[in-house]
User: Which sequence fits this backbone?
C-alpha cells in the first residue's frame, strides 16, 4: 500500500463506518486472530464491525475473544449476503484471492463497497481497493499490528486485541520456529505480552485440549506415515473411512502434517486427506530449508501458500493422488 492509498484509507477510517471483516474459508489461528483483533480495534475507533467467516472454524479456536459473535456464511447465506450489501467497508484478511472464500466469492465480488486486503501470501489478486500485501511477514496478525502502529493508534491496543494477535503470530510462526520469525516479531510479541496476553495458557488452549477420538485419529495418521529416505520426503494419508471411524470434526487434523518433518533427514512432507463430500483430496505440504512447497502446490495441485507451508487439492482418487505425488518427488528430488 503506497502512501497515497494509506492516507485515503486513513481518511475513510476517520469517520464511523459499518465494516465487515472476512477471513478465508477453513480459517486457522492467523485468520481468526487477525479478523477478531482488527474487529475489536476498529470498534475502539468508533466503527461498527462484524466478522463473517465463510464456514465454521475449529473448536480449538472457540475460546478466542469475540468468536461467539462471528457470523458463519454457510449457515445463513441469503441473510448474510443482504447484510454484506449494507456494509460501507470490507476488510479481507489472510487471503489474497476471493476464491479462497469458497461460495462467498461471488457475493464479495458483487459488493461495491471499498475493499481492503491485508495478507502475506504470494501473487495477490486485484479485487481490493487498498492492498497491504507483503510476503516478508510471517503472519497477517503481525501485519495488523503494523497497520495499527502506522495509524498512530497503538494506544488503543489492549489485552483483548493483543490476545487475538498473539494467537495468530504464534500459530502461523509454528510457535516461533519458522524462518520468517524475526527480531521484530519477538519485539511485537513482547509488547503484546506486556499488555496482559496469557501467553503461557494459550498453547494449552490451542494444542492440549484433545479429544480421545482426535488422539486416535492422530495415531492412525502416524501409522500411515511413509518415508522416502532417498528423496528426504515423507507423507501420510487419512481416508474418509478412517475419518468417519474416529468421529472426525473440523480441526482434528490440524498440525498432523508437521510430524513428518520431525524425522531425521526429512525436509519435505505432506498429508493427504480424503473428503468425499467435496469430492477432493485435501493436501497440506510442509518443508524445511529451501524447497519451495508454495511453487510445488501451485504447479501440481491447484494450491499455494508460503515457501515452507502450503496447501493444495486433487480431484483424483486417494490412491492415484499418492502415486502421482511419489512420481513427482522422484522426478524433482526435493
Assistant:
Amino acid at each position: 500500500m503506497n502512501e497515497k492509498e494509506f492516507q485515503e484509507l486513513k481518511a475513510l477510517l476517520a469517520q464511523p463506518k459499518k465494516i465487515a471483516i472476512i477471513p478465508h474459508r477453513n480459517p486457522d489461528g492467523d485468520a481468526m486472530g487477525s479478523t477478531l483483533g482488527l474487529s475489536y480495534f476498529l470498534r475502539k475507533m468508533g466503527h461498527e464491525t462484524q466478522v463473517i467467516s465463510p464456514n465454521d472454524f475449529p473448536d480449538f479456536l472457540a475460546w478466542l475473544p469475540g468468536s461467539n459473535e462471528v457470523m458463519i456464511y454457510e449457515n445463513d447465506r441469503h441473510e448474510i449476503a443482504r447484510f454484506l450489501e449494507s456494509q460501507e467497508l470490507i476488510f479481507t484478511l489472510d487471503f489474497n484471492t476471493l476464491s479462497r472464500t469458497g461460495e462467498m466469492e461471488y457475493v464479495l465480488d458483487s459488493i461495491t463497497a471499498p475493499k481492503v486486503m491485508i495478507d502475506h501470501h504470494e501473487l495477490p489478486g486485484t479485487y481490493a481497493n487498498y492492498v497491504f500485501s507483503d510476503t516478508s511477514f510471517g503472519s497477517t496478525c503481525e501485519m495488523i499490528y503494523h497497520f495499527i502502529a502506522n495509524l498512530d493508534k497503538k494506544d488503543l491496543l489492549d489485552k483483548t486485541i493483543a490476545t487475538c494477535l498473539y494467537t495468530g503470530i504464534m500459530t502461523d510462526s509454528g510457535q516461533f520456529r519458522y524462518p520468517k520469525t524475526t527480531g521484530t516479531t519477538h519485539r511485537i510479541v513482547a509488547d503484546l505480552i506486556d499488555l496482559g496476553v496469557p501467553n503461557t495458557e494459550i498453547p494449552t488452549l490451542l494444542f492440549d485440549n484433545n479429544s480421545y477420538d482426535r488422539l486416535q485419529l492422530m495415531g492412525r495418521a502416524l501409522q500411515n506415515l511413509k518415508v522416502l529416505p532417498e528423496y528426504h520426503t515423507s507423507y501420510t494419508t487419512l481416508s474418509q473411512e478412517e475419518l468417519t471411524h474416529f468421529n472426525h470434526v473440523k480441526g482434528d487434523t490440524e498440525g498432523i502434517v508437521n510430524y513428518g518433518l520431525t524425522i531425521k533427514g526429512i525436509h519435505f512432507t505432506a498429508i493427504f486427506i480424503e473428503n468425499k463430500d467435496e469430492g477432493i483430496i485435501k493436501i497440506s505440504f510442509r518443508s524445511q530449508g529451501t524447497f519451495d512447497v508454495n511453487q510445488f502446490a501451485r504447479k501440481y495441485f491447484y494450491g499455494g501458500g508460503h515457501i515452507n507451508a502450503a496447501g493444495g487439492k486433487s480431484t483424483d482418487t486417494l490412491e492415484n493422488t499418492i502415486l502421482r505425488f511419489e512420481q513427482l518427488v522422484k522426478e524433482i528430488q526435493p
Notes: The two ends are 35 Å apart (CA to CA). Residues 29-44 form the longest helix (16 residues). The chain has twelve helices and twelve strands.
